[in-house]
Sequence to fold (614 residues):
Amino acid sequence: MLQGKELAQLFPSTPGLKRLHHAQELCNATLVAGEKRFSCNRALLASLSPYFHAVFTSGFKESRDGEVLLQGVDPSILQSLLTYLYTGELAPSPETAEDLFTAASRLQLQPALELINRYLKERLSVENCLRLYMLAHDHNSATLLHATLRYLSLHFDSLLEHKDFPCLDLGALSSILSSDRLAVASEMDVYRALRCWVMAEPAERLPALRVLLQDLRFPLLTPAEAAEVLAEVVTFDPQLELQWEDVDGAGRLQASGGLRQGMYQERIVCIKVPRLRDIISGNGDMDCYMECMDPGTGMRATLPPLELVALPGCTTLGHKLYLSGGKFSDGSYSRALHEYDALADRWTPLPAMSTARSVHMLLTCKRKLFALSGWNESGPLASAESFDTAQQTWSPMASLPLILRFSAPAPFRNKLYLIGGDADSEEVAYQGILVYDIPSDTWTQVPLEFSLYGAAALAMDAGVCVIGGFFSGKVLHPYPNRRFSQLLPCTQQCFLMQEAGVVSKGITVPPLPLPLAFAGATHWQGTVYVIGGVCASRTHDAIYHWKPGEEAWTQYPENLTGPGGILRRVLKCVTLKVAGPELKALLQETSASRVAVGLSDQGGDGPGPLPPSP
Fold:
């Protein structure tokens, strides 16, 4: 049962309402469920439920008499909901939660629905996911529908054998099959799923085949797979005619509407750059090196190179990697934005930032890029701007309330967090967090009880994981002629920061094996990876990983550079989605292939020509 602050956020119950409920006072309405009658206050019901507001203001008999018959509602369920409305106390259980959801949905009791939705989402499983998805679909519950669709998309293969899968109705199944989130390695898996559903009741469902085939992304089938599907579906429906069109690899991807989630494979990309002083002096290796790594297999590959710049911004969005700004060897600064498409394996220049900047932070949130702070010819910058990846345009945003460099930046729940950093104007480590609220375009400063500089940060489900850096629990003051980083000890400490800058006491992150600052950090398949960094003023080349629930970090068998490699400092590590080898080869074909891109409702002499054999 929810209590305290959490409960108050869902329902503003008062002691006065509890007293009225127990004393049955000021009751001017009666709800009837089964053979039981419940006295209650119509003003309270109408204020919390659009359903009851309509009933009691309609002018019909229920409004005049104040008696409402609720057919099909279990009396014990109604009693629980009324108790919640008066007292704020509701204790869903595995036996009652779905009935509570159904009744609260029907009666439009939104406060109760929020609590029940939370309960159901926390208990999603392979066993109940399909049933809850159908329940959410039937009651048009966006919150539960989103949660269940995400869960079953990730567990799609295991759900095909579940007894509830053939029970899905056509609309629910179509919503699933059209989802980008499906964790399938091949589009043939989607076809096999729809075939399984149709053949469960072929007499009734074969007419729905044409509808479901609209959800199949034919361009993502190999020629052999497309031929197999074509040969089979025309045996089900001889009047079905598939339309074919010549497209190359890029056209195939565009015609399909994109890959499914399971068609991507996650890779860690390390952006490794020479030191700025080496760029300026021309000494040493001068390549800006981008390495793609699969921690599961140890496979490594380099990305196509870009023009050398020092300290650019870096972030990813799906299968695309973005680099912005940086400093050239001649001392000038860059405004450029480049996009690497992992499917096409090439870099593309995009519209440039309005302001040249280096040593800046580049974050991704809600399909937008955010370039924050930094440095250029004019000195330190407080300005910021955002890039809409759909519209391909930059827009100004509220400037930072103070200039920060080397913060630990991370997006979390529609906000951007800049934790600690170099408060350049004060020449002292910033003892706080800058929080940017994206919808309102406003910054908020949240004080911290410690100073932090050069840490790494990444968003997780429960909060922002902050890793290493230069750290002090004391209040620091400016010191003339000395960099404050010389005054702060490097730390092994890691912690989870929740919303509003609160350090979590319930979730602990183990300390690193050694003190590290300026490390790259990302997560891959639920595991956090820390790569490179600086230890005792020297570049470090070890890789460590930790999975929530483990008691310590584990060192990866290989180091950052690999055998015979050249040690470079890691600028940033990010996780990038790439296509599997077979699918990537299909999408990168330069010669035209015949693929199905649509369906015709016109009967004819049979299907179009088969796609060429591989």
Notes: Residues 521 and 530 are 4 Å apart (CA to CA).
